[in-house]
Amino acid sequence: MKILHVLYSGLGGHGNVFFSMVDADEQGEFTFEALFNGIEEVKAEYIEHCTAKNIPWHFIPKKPGLDIPYFARLYRQIKKARPGIIFLHGGAAAIPAKLAKITGTGIQKIIVRETQANHLKTRIDWFYLATAMLLADKMVYLSEAYRQQVKAKLTWLFREKRSVVIPNGINLLTYGKTTKPHDASRVVLGMQSRLIDIKDHLTLLDAFALLLKKEMPVTLQLQIAGDGAFKKTLEEKAAALQITNQVIFTGMLEEKELVDFLQQLDIYIHASLGETMSTAIMQAMACGKPIIASDVPGIDNMIEHDITGILVPAKNAVALAAAIERLINNPHLADKLADNAFTFAQTNYSGKKMLDNYKDIFTN
Prior knowledge:
The protein is an alpha/beta fold and 364 residues long. It contains 13 helices and 13 strands. The mean pLDDT is 93.
């Protein structure tokens, strides 16, 4: 059976989920095809993965704002692919997918994996979700709490029988603990994500500046991985705080570089205003890192405070700095959190477990 994934072309969780699903299909039960789309060019890493795995791929660029010709191009490419299943990473393409299905292309199911954090959705995001709810055969949510939030918002539009909860997964063979020696004189902090305003990098920089003003038993370095429209703002913020020499912006990292990046960190920090299910946190857990993250929807259901990580209020630099200082001064706690996070990832975030859950809705 051919599965056509319609997913965002740039950095984000879509690509990680897609390739984790491909890697988990060890028996070759499915044929995969990728239709990348968005305002960014296709990541070079995605192209390399598709080439190495013999996955056909296509790219439909989108202009910012309403782009009607973009939807028409999506429709034509979906029809041309003639998949058995259309797997939409988000509901924006539900209308062209439905049109392709009803025009005799042999499409059996439209599955929509909803990913945008509910409290960060715009009106157009809610419109796309409501439309997808009416047109898709199955709506996949990443957690029960997230599903219930959507149900409360859409009320009579919500379709209970079409809804299912399937958490994301990653390739646990790629991400793992490191055996590199630890430098006791230095602590490296890090975060990886798209550099956009719905992440809370500004608070992270403020917290790091507060720490540098204190007398610490170690030297500190902050590494921020990723790229995006907010990068210049963050660089200017670091300069204004006079911490430029201690902050490294690594830029976009390919997967192997990302694994190396995570493994050399002493503490992983995920400052955010909201998530649905953070792939970055899953990856940090799988690498066995102590994690400090914002106590916001989409993270608070992944991390249990003081068990698998530390949760702090978003936009609170003082609290974030205090949490970092707490782990620096208590390495035993840091080790405990790291071990618990690693065990949790191994149990809950397997790409194979994710694919097995999807098989039920692919074939039934």
